[in-house]
């Protein structure tokens, strides 16, 4: 990809949005793991835990960028990313992270938790980079400081403006569609621009539409379950 061309900037923007939406809970993971430590050790844990998580995530992302060049994996990764986009629309994230009482244990917990929770992020960023290692590095350099120091604020914004999640899911679906149409043996089917862009738009609409419908249905089921559990008012008057 040509440096600083329009495609470069659009891919970079997609990477930053993906990092913010999918990795926006990193600060919470760090805080939960370090909450039982003395104040003077918490800063040390935050710094080294974050450094370790960044190194592992960067290495994993670069490895996936290389792996996606293998025939068929781009299509498979795109399909998985479509599912991740759908799950992002309907799932509520839990942060069941055990607090640690030692600096080393807390750092280890942060790194492991981030590695497990960041699998979707790694695949999404690798797909958005379109095989460009420089994009991955620049994307990480831009988004990591935002995620580490601003993710708590970003999570509050998500709670206040839920449509941010929809935007993020749309970017993921768009990235997935790009991966699918970019697969070598799929390209002959998308040589026509109308078919190619129509397919990409269709996937985005399907993911957002199904996600919105499922989320609404789950909310209705949750409300119904809450009403069933609610105690019936007593007929006896004091």
Automatic annotation (TrEMBL):
Task: Check the record and name the InterPro entries matching this protein.
Answer: Integral_membrane_TerC, Integral_membrane_YjbE
Superkingdom of this protein's organism = Bacteria
Q: A single Pfam family, by name?
A: TerC
Enumerate the transmembrane spans: 12-33, 45-67, 73-90, 102-127, 133-155, 162-182, 194-213
Is Nucleus set as a keyword in this record? Answer: no
Q: Which UniProt keywords apply?
A: Membrane, Transmembrane, Transmembrane helix
Q: Where in the cell is it found?
A: Membrane
UniProt similarity note: Belongs to the TerC family.
Q: Which PANTHER family match?
A: MEMBRANE BOUND PREDICTED REDOX MODULATOR, SLL1022 PROTEIN
Q: Which NCBIfam families match?
A: R_switched_YjbE (TIGR03717)
Name the UniProt record assigns to this protein: TerC family protein
Species for this entry: Fictibacillus arsenicus
């Amino acid at each position: 990809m040509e440096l600083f061309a329009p495609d470069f900037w659009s891919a970079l923007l997609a990477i930053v949005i993906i990092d913010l939406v999918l990795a926006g809970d990193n600060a919470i993971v760090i805080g939960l793991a370090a909450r039982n430590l003395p104040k003077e050790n918490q800063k040390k844990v935050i710094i080294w835990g974050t450094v370790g998580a960044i190194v592992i995530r960067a290495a994993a992302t670069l490895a996936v960028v290389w792996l996606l060049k293998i025939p068929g994996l781009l299509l498979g990764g795109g399909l998985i990313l479509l599912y991740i986009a759908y799950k992002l629309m309907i799932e509520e994230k839990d942060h069941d992270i055990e607090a640690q009482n030692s600096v080393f244990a807390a750092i280890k917990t942060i790194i492991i938790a981030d590695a497990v929770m960041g699998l979707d992020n790694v695949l999404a960023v690798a797909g958005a980079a379109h095989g460009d290692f420089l994009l991955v590095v620049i994307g990480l350099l831009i988004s990591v400081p935002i995620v580490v120091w601003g993710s708590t604020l970003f999570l509050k914004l998500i709670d206040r403006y839920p449509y941010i999640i929809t935007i993020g899911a749309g970017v993921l679906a768009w990235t997935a569609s790009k991966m699918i149409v970019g697969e070598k043996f799929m390209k002959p089917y998308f040589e026509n621009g109308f078919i190619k862009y129509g397919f990409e738009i269709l996937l985005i609409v399907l993911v957002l539409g199904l996600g919105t419908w499922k989320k609404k249905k789950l909310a209705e089921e949750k409300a119904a379950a809450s009403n069933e559990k609610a105690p019936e008012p007593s007929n006896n008057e004091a």
